[in-house]
Design a protein that fits this description.
Its main location: nucleus. By secondary structure, the protein is α+β, with helices and mostly antiparallel strands. It contains six helices and nine strands.
């Protein structure tokens, strides 16, 4: 029945939103003021894009469009051939049926389109959250030479959107005089502590801060200012302890 596929898509969208929110809640530690914890490479950021279901809904949309065009064509032909009152009266019942058919087909078509746009908007909103919460390691979506879990689940156009969106934010952050001194992608919640203890999860090398230079070697621990290592925490290189 028309609309059943769109219902499946909306159910999947709700499930995707719930699963992704669960992941974000786990990846963002409220005790750290919303700063990302270390990332488990086996976790899935967002479920795979359902190409097959989208394709079938688009086929249904095309079929509905053909149905509405056919009904309009039949209506026009009847109006052109009607030249007597008896013809109008005899075709009155059929005219009501065709109007109902046209209305139902049009409603199903519009609903399918709204469901498709809602699905795309839901996934784009999730991608936006991933970018703003520091869950994107780099513009090319690679981390230490290997693809991070979750990016394979995005469609080609979603990966392109995510890369361009990240580039746009980086460009605004680097070129604007107003934002050059402000980390617009930083933590929006005030820290509970100015200085924190951290453990280095990956070899980074020397980091220059206002209070000196630190050599971040794996499994080493430091007492540093939180604002100096916030991005490293978000990217999963260090962890607050």
């Amino acid at each position: 029945m028309y609309g059943d596929l769109a219902n499946k898509l909306i159910i999947e969208a709700k499930r995707t939103e719930q699963l992704t929110q669960k992941y974000l809640d786990a990846a963002l530690n409220s005790d750290n003021g919303g700063i990302r914890n270390d990332f488990n490479g086996n976790e899935t950021i967002i479920p795979m894009y359902n190409d097959e279901l989208i394709y079938n809904i688009l086929k249904e949309v095309n079929q509905l469009k053909q149905n509405t065009e056919y009904l309009q064509h039949i209506k026009q032909e009847e109006e052109e051939t009607k030249d007597q009152l008896k013809d109008v009266l005899s075709g009155h019942s059929n005219d009501k049926i065709r109007k109902c058919q046209y209305f139902v087909n049009l409603l199903c078509l519009e609903r399918n389109k709204r469901c498709l746009m809602a699905y795309q908007r839901m996934r784009s909103d999730i991608i936006d959250k991933m970018v703003w919460n520091g869950l994107i390691g780099s513009n090319n979506m690679y981390n230490n030479g290997s693809k991070r879990s979750g990016y394979n689940e995005l469609s080609h156009y979603e990966q392109e959107y995510m890369s361009q969106y990240k580039n746009l934010i980086d460009e605004m952050n680097s070129e604007s005089e107003l934002w050059s001194s402000i980390e617009i992608m930083g933590n929006m919640n005030p820290p509970s502590d100015i200085f924190i203890d951290i453990r280095v999860l990956k070899d980074i090398g020397e980091i220059q801060t206002e209070y000196g230079t630190f050599n971040f070697v794996k499994d080493s621990q430091f007492y540093v200012r939180q604002s100096d290592v916030e991005r490293l925490i978000q990217q999963g290189y260090v962890q607050k302890i």
